[in-house]
Amino acid sequence: MPYPTKTLAFIVVLFMSALANAQPQGTAKPELVLSEVVSGMPTLERQAVRVLTANFKPGDQTVFHTHRSPVTVYILEGAFTLELEGRPPVIVKAGQAFVEPPNVKMTGYNRSNTEPLRLVIFYVSDPDTPFLDVLH
Q1: Is the pLDDT of residue 18 over 60?
Q2: Confidence band for 77, pLDDT divided at 50, 70 and 90
Q3: Domain ranges of the chain
Q4: Residues in contact with 41: Cβ distance below 8 Å, sequence separation at least 6, in sequence order
Q5: CATH dotted code for 39-134
Q6: Which of 52, 100, 122, 131 could bridge 71 with an S-S bond, Cβ 3.0-4.6 Å?
């Protein structure tokens, strides 16, 4: 039986607090990469938590699209150039993260001619919501 969202959030906060306060020497400790207050999160009783990976060859790009919920991107290798409508391009490099806002037209690129791009994508949405909506 799945946990209610509030219970799951409480468990995660409790776990992270315990890790932060009781770290024996030689034990890995999580490092905060990004903290951002967002709007547009799903509000139904059930949400799907999804984690994806993407690999871009030199010169690859995403389709022109939007997301219905905020999407967090963490760069493992390379640099990701993100073009969001009405904003200057953003370059997110390895070890950095960025939150893509909902309902904003965007596309992303690996602008390198030689280096691959690897990233992790995290988002929460209503269970039947697609990851992205392709725009033409």
Answers
A1: no
A2: very high
A3: 39-134
A4: 69, 70, 124
A5: 2.60.120.10
A6: 100
Tell me how long the chain is. Answer: 136
β-pair partners for 109: 61, 81
Span 25-68, pLDDT tens digits: 788 888 889 898 888 888 888 999 999 999 999 999 999 999 99
Q: In whole angstroms, what separates CA 79 from the centre of its chain?
A: 15
Q: Please provide the average confidence, as pLDDT, over all residues in the chain.
A: 87
Q: For residue 65, give the amino acid letter.
A: H
Cα 111 to Cα 45: distance, rounded to the nearest angstrom: 40
CB atoms within 10 A of CB 59: 12
Quick check: 52 and 131 in contact, CB under 8 A?
Answer: yes
Question: What residues have CB less than 8 Å from 117, skipping those under 6 apart?
Answer: 54, 55, 56, 60, 75, 77, 78, 79, 80, 110
Cα end-to-end span (Å), the chain? 40
- The C-alpha atoms of residue 123 and residue 70 are separated, in whole angstroms, by 7
